[in-house]
Amino acid sequence: MTQLQKPADILEVRALTRDRTKGNLRFGQITVPCALGRSGILARKKEGDSGTPSGRFELLQVYYRPDKGLPPATSLPLEPLTPVSGWCDDPRHRLYNRPVRLPFASGHERMWRQDRLYDIVVVLDCNMYPAVKGRGSAIFFHIAREDYRPTEGCVAVAPEHMRLLLAKIRPGAVMQIHI
Fold it and tell me: Is residue 46 assigned to a domain?
């Protein structure tokens, strides 16, 4: 590493020993609770297994609901969601694990949700470059339910914690999810 390079910001995620669907996310001196997938943290992620994949994933892009508040303060790329925002989760489709515009005939997830989960959502570099069919899609860092119920495989935190973390991290930040 040269003098001009700084180490990447690392958000570390670990499951609780008493409940593998919940964990702690640590960034420097900040530690906050998080929700994890129903299957806990898995070493071998597969589409539909409801597991949070272990590994190191760059935080790539932040999406937000402009009708639910101000955009988060962040130095990451930021884009508003719209009612036609979707994400392809069909392993047979060429746009697997990519954003799509709705309506979309193949399997997909709506990004404009009725609940708060995607009011702020960060795309993680999980199975993205290249997207391997069946290895999991739509693995995000997003807003948790009020009771921290399990996700479908994502990492989720409270809205105020998401805003706090996004304001502090820099481009190139990574989420390290530990088994």
Answer: yes
Tokens of 36: 């994890």
Domain assignment of residue 170, yes or no: yes
Distance CA 173, CA 22 (A): 22
Residue 125 reports pLDDT greater than 70:
yes
CB 72 within 8 A of CB 164: no
- Tell me how long the chain is: 179
pLDDT recorded at residue 103? 98
Query: What is the CA angle 54-119-156, rounded to 5?
Result: 25
The whole domain housing 139 covers: 10-177
- Determine whether 142 is exposed, middle or buried from the number of CB atoms within 10 Å of its CB (0-12, 13-18, 19+): buried
pLDDT of residue 121: 98
- What strands lie across the sheet with 99-101, from one edge to the other? 99-101, 85-88, 108-110
Nearest Cα neighbor of 177 from 20, 30, 1 is 20
Domain count, the chain: 1
Q: Tell me the two tokens of residue 16.
A: 């609780």
CATH of the domain at 71: 2.40.440
Q: What pLDDT, in 10s, does the model give residues 55-89?
A: 999 999 999 999 999 999 999 999 999 999 999 99
